[in-house]
Amino acid sequence: MTIADHDAPETDAPADRLSRLGIVVPPPPPPIANFLTHVLEGDLLFLSGQGPRESDGHLHIGKVGLDVSVEDAYAHARLTGINLLAVMQASLGDLRRVKRIVKLFGMVNATPDFADHPLVINGCSDLFIEVFGQRGHHARSAVGMGSLPGNITVEIEVIVAIER
């Protein structure tokens, strides 16, 4: 799929795009420690880091570059993006309120010699562009970590500009 394919008519609602993609947004995952899943400050929505949690609670774990492939980690980043969409939807009531995905910070639980962090985090970035079109294009960091909570493969946090 090319970037042009992602940019279906901007009048398409995110819910319509999700439906075409066959994605059902689950309830947002609960926090795993003492923090909020999101904070709304002015016209910005700050989403806490989410990980690759399936709707049944299963977490994808492992070290990318050792026991997890780039392809599997890409799928985990995409799943993490779906969980971030769940938090956005729960906090905003409607994904049409997303004015723009401003910044994405992606962390990969990787071996010291792993170098393909951007390819992994593309799983989330590609999803946001598919769902939001031009409004889904964002600034981004993709970095490797020596470990992540619960040994999850990826963790991603997002800053979103919203319509009031």
Written description of the protein model:
- By secondary structure, the protein is of the alpha+beta class.
- It has one domain (13-28, 37-162): 60s Ribosomal Protein L30, Chain: A, CATH 3.30.1330.
- Helices cover 31% and strands 24% of the residues.
- It has a five-stranded mixed sheet with strand order 1-2-5-3-4, covered by helices on one side.
- Strand 1 and strand 2 form a beta hairpin.
- Helix 3 (70-92) packs parallel to helix 4.
- The termini are far apart.
- Residues 1-8 have low confidence and may be disordered.
What's the number of structural domains?
Answer: 1
- CATH architecture descriptor text: 2-Layer Sandwich
The CATH topology turns out to be 60s Ribosomal Protein L30, Chain: A
The CATH homologous superfamily name equals: RutC-like
- Contiguous uncertain segments of 5+ residues: 1-8
What portion of the residues fall into strands of 2 or more residues?
Answer: 15-25%
Layout of secondary structure:
Layout: H1 3-6, H2 14-21, E1 38-41, E2 44-50, H3 70-92, E3 98-109, H4 117-132, E4 139-145, E5 154-162
Parallel strand pairs: 3-4
Antiparallel strand pairs: 1-2, 2-5, 3-5
Helix pairs in contact: 3-4
